[in-house]
């Protein structure tokens, strides 16, 4: 097991951030930790990285305490808030982080792979939100680590930048284990080999994206027909569309939408919520 | 990975981030030398004995200032930053991060003190020999330790906003009360009474002992007490911050 949280609990004062949460990352896995804000994702990651101590349970990485320097040499992390020292240049920051690892990527490779070549000499204080996010991600990979931890890698980015980032990330996630947190259902489904859903400190789901899709309920279909807009949520959206097309009736603006994260959570928690 | 390589990498990053802020570099490097020229040069020019004493006082002032700002203000402003949090995820021992801060402060402290010494060599009849300068260098480095710890204490016990005025006030008051700006003999009576108990005065005495102007013994004892007090206060402050932020 590469990373393992066992029955981890954590409270901040009277707020119970995690309640006996367990999950693991195995070799060749890309695990998404999915949940709304305040679900406990960041706390779980911080405990897994040894930045915080758990009230109960255990966290191990490569079978050992994540606080050990030897273990951390095998982990690359993306800072959640990309606040870099204003006066340092992009290349300097990458080199600095890479210097911590035994077998880092070459500087030029990091810069070109994450689209930072033009920015190499720029000071971190002058980067835009998207640019500093790219730098933050590059830092997780710069040391060429076996395990990569991405805390909300795409938060605050527009849809197009998010897609572009994930294209880059997918090629880099090959041959290593990755765990990332997100509050986008789609991001978790498309990019992960396994999804762990957290809500209010509890594990709601742990399994493959397909199984999650099956659990989170039906897609809704909407289109503009002869009598205006129609919106339905059929048992089988694919079959419904097939029938619609075969009927030969005129329609436009067809949309098949997945349930939102909120709806998915409703489905996962059932009546308890 | 070799800790020496890491120490160099951390020092480089810390140094570059500071040296590119003219607002930090110019006042830090120039103020002690400038104050020296403004306040003490007229007296120091007249007599080698005065030049020796005032120059050593301003070397102490330079080091105290760098220690209080670099550690006090630096730590207070950086400890809550995301970058600091990210650094903790990197495979580097805490000692390396602290060591880099000490190294950066030493670079600025030595440069600042050297500037005072160079100004004095150029403009006054100062007559310290090489063996005396060597002793001054050793005393400066050792005597700076309690002030580094005082800075760390300040950094962990104050908020980022309060750190700057507090560092400035303690720096100026301690320098004045310690007789670093004007000879202790010229201080007003009530200040002269508390002066011997101030760490700045003891630091001054330690440096002055090189010229025979003061005795090293009591100064070393006093600085040792302050070192113990601030080592404890700094450790408690560091632990308290760790607890609040990372538990």
Report on this model:
The complex is a heterodimer of chains A (273) and B (247). Chain A is of the alpha/beta class and 273 residues long. Chain A folds into two domains: 3-214, Rossmann fold, CATH 3.40.50.300; 218-272, no CATH class. Chain A has ten helices and twelve strands. In chain A, strands 5-6-7-3-8-9 form a six-stranded mixed sheet, with helices on both faces. A three-stranded antiparallel sheet of chain A has the order 2-1-4. The model of chain A has no long low-confidence stretch (mean pLDDT 87). Chain B is mostly helical and 247 residues long. Chain B has one domain (3-246). Chain B is 81% helix and 0% strand. Chain B is globular. The model of chain B has no long low-confidence stretch (mean pLDDT 91). The A-B interface holds A 49, 51-53, 69-70, 72-73, 75, 77, 79-88, 92-93, 95-97, 99-102, 123, 139, 149 and B 1, 5-6, 9-10, 12-13, 16-18, 20-21, 81-83, 85-86, 88-93, 246-247.
What distinguishing features does this structure have?
heterodimer, A: 273 residues, alpha/beta, Rossmann fold, 2 domains, six-stranded mixed beta sheet, three-stranded antiparallel beta sheet, 12 strands, globular, B: 247 residues, mainly alpha, 11 helices
Compact description:
Chain A is built from 10 helices and 12 strands.
Tally of extended strands of chain B?
A: 0
Name of the CATH architecture of the largest domain in chain A: 3-Layer(aba) Sandwich
Distance between the termini of chain A: 33 Å
- Percent of residues in helices of chain B comes to over 70%
Largest sheet: number of strands, sense, barrel closure of chain A: 6 strands, mixed
Structural class of the secondary structure composition of chain A? alpha/beta
What is the CATH first-level class name of the largest domain in chain A?
Alpha Beta
Q: Mean pLDDT score of chain B, rounded? A: 91
Structural class of chain B: mainly alpha
Beta-strand content bin of chain B = under 5%
Beta-strand percent range of chain A: 25-35%
């Amino acid at each position: 097991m590469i990373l393992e949280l066992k029955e981890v609990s954590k409270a901040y004062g009277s707020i119970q951030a995690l309640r006996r949460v367990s999950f693991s990352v195995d070799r060749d896995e890309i695990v998404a930790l999915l949940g709304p804000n305040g679900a406990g994702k960041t706390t779980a990651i911080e405990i897994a990285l040894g930045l915080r101590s758990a009230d109960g349970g255990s966290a191990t990485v490569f079978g050992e305490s994540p606080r050990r320097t030897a273990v951390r040499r095998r982990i690359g992390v993306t800072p959640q808030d990309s606040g870099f020292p204003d006066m340092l240049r992009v290349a300097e920051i990458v080199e600095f982080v890479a210097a911590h690892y035994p077998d880092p990527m070459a500087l030029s490779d990091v810069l070109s792979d994450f689209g930072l070549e033009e920015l190499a000499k720029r000071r971190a204080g002058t980067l835009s939100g998207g640019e500093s996010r790219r730098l933050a991600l590059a830092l997780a990979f710069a040391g060429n680590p076996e395990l990569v931890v991405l805390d909300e890698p795409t938060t605050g980015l527009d849809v197009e930048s998010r897609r572009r980032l994930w294209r880059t990330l997918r090629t880099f996630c090959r041959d290593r284990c990755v765990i990332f947190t997100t509050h986008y259902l789609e991001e978790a489904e498309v990019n992960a080999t396994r999804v762990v859903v957290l809500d209010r400190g509890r594990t709601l789901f742990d399994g493959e994206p397909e199984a999650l899709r099956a659990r989170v309920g039906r897609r809704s279909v909407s289109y503009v027909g002869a009598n205006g807009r129609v919106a339905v949520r059929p048992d089988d959206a694919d079959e419904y569309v097939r029938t619609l097309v075969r009927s030969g009736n005129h329609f436009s603006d067809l949309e098949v939408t997945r349930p939102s994260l909120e709806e998915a959570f409703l489905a996962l928690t059932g009546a308890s919520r | 990975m070799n800790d020496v390589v890491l120490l160099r990498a951390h020092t480089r990053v810390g140094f570059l981030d500071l040296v590119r802020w003219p607002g930090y570099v110019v006042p830090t490097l120039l103020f002690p030398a400038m104050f020296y020229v403004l306040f003490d040069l007229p007296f120091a020019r007249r007599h080698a004995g005065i030049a020796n004493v005032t120059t050593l006082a301003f070397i102490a002032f330079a080091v105290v200032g760098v220690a209080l700002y670099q550690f006090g203000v630096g730590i207070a402003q950086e400890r809550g930053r995301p970058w600091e949090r990210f650094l903790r995820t990197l495979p580097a021992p805490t000692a390396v991060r602290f060591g880099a801060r000490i190294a950066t402060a030493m670079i600025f402290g030595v440069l600042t003190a050297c500037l005072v010494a160079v100004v004095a060599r150029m403009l006054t009849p100062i007559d310290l020999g090489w063996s005396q300068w060597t002793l001054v260098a050793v005393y400066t480095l050792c005597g700076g330790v309690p002030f580094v710890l005082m800075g760390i204490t300040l950094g962990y016990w104050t908020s980022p906003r309060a750190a700057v005025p507090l560092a400035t006030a303690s720096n100026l008051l301690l320098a004045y009360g310690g007789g670093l700006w004007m000879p202790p003999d010229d201080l007003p009576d009530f200040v002269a009474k508390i002066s011997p108990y101030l760490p700045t005065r003891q630091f001054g005495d330690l440096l002055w002992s090189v010229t025979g102007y003061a005795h090293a013994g009591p100064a070393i004892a006093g600085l040792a007490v302050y070192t113990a007090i601030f080592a404890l206060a700094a450790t408690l402050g560091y632990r308290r911050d760790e607890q609040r932020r990372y538990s």
